[in-house]
Amino acid sequence: MASVEVRNVVKTYKRDAEELRVLDGLSLSIPDGAFVALMGPSGSGKTTLLNLIGGVDQPSSGDVEIAGTNIARMTGANLAKWRSASIGYIFQTYNLIPVLSALENVELPLLLVRMSAAERRKRATTALELVGLGDRLKHYPRQLSGGQEQRVAIARALVSDPKVLLADEPTGDLDRKSAEEVLNLLDRLNREFKKTIVMVTHDPHASQRASRQYHLDKGVLSN
């Protein structure tokens, strides 16, 4: 079964009187449990495609189906609820909240679902232990290295047990050693926990970790 099915997707943006076509009739099928890398030059549409798969943005035309649910026409509260349950997002810049501890940052997505405080804490603790930070629960982002911050961000993406993990340049701000640790972790999440991972990267070394690489150029996809 395909975990991600993108069919004939067009995405255009208006810039003054000009219409900018970022994705041009793009189709992509990602099997359940695959680890896919999206590569291509800046402005090729990689992040736009990731945002469409994650329900952060909507296509101008075409369909986006995630685990059997067509999200292309979903809006508002329904889309937000689906996204919080189905998608885990990992960003280049971590997007952690500085005044919250690692545990509190990881708990954040669970505030959107009905759950006791004790259950939230338990699940966030488990997620942090999974990424190797069980001894850093009370640390604030400023007390962590870049690699540790990214692992907190991965724990936050995992905590609601999403169907799909979307990673936008997850190693872009890291030194080689920290990047390797993050890639090892993504690899493990894919192999052991069968998470479907779609990773945007500029780094050919990072892309080699994926089971399949795609190249985007001017909104058109090639293998």
What structural keywords apply?
single chain; four-stranded antiparallel beta sheet; 223 residues; Rossmann fold; six-stranded mixed beta sheet; 29% strand; alpha/beta
How does this model look, in words?
There is one protein chain. By secondary structure, the protein is of the alpha/beta class. It has one domain (2-222): Rossmann fold (3-Layer(aba) Sandwich). It is 32% helix and 29% strand. It has helices spanning 46-53, 76-86, 102-107, 117-130, 146-158, 176-191, 204-207; strands at 2-15, 18-31, 35-39, 61-66, 69-70, 87-90, 164-168, 196-200, 212-217, 220-222. The protein has a six-stranded mixed β-sheet with strand order 6-7-8-3-9-10. Strands 2-1-4-5 form a four-stranded antiparallel β-sheet, with helices on one face. Helix 4 crosses helix 5 and helix 5 (146-158) runs parallel beside helix 6. The longest helix is centred in the last third of the chain and has 16 residues, at 176-191.
How is the secondary structure organized here?
Blueprint: E1 2-15, E2 18-31, E3 35-39, H1 46-53, E4 61-66, E5 69-70, H2 76-86, E6 87-90, H3 102-107, H4 117-130, H5 146-158, E7 164-168, H6 176-191, E8 196-200, H7 204-207, E9 212-217, E10 220-222
Parallel strand pairs: 3-8, 3-9, 6-7, 7-8
Antiparallel strand pairs: 1-2, 1-4, 4-5, 9-10
Helix pairs in contact: 4-5, 5-6
